[in-house]
Amino acid sequence: MGIQEEIKQSHFRNAYQKAFINILFTNNWLDEQIREMLNGEDLTKQQFNVLRILRGSHPDPLSTLQIRERMLDKMSDTSRIVDRLIKKDLVSKQTCPDDKRLVDVLITEEGLKKLKALDQKEHMIEDSFDKLSETEAEELSNLLDKMRGQ
User: Fold this and answer.
1) 68 and 118 share a domain?
2) Of 41, 45, 47, 85, which sees the most CB atoms within 10 A?
3) Which residues pair with 95 in a beta bridge?
4) Are 138 and 80 in a shared domain?
């Protein structure tokens, strides 16, 4: 079903407005898929994002500043998110040996296990892209990069 049918709007000012609305609608749709995936996992999207970032750097630690730079939601309060993940035993932090002003954050074995379990659910979201060929998915990603001036 096209965006016109989804939102019951037959006319758009131009193709740019239609694309803008379609991106917003699709973002909300993906947001709902992620919420469903995380339902019952006691994790927010931002916490999930931090865990994935830390798994990507594992076994090397990252500072909260490095985590913030890699976050999908740049407005997130990284320190608070890390503190909540520490309470859940999913990450740990320690003072950086090279710079005592910085804190190193590491994903724990529990955090790695949690992500491994979530990987199976995440495949369900990726499967929703099966209507696109791999070439089309790459093209879509490149177009979105281009739109952001990348």
Assistant:
1) yes
2) 85
3) 103
4) yes
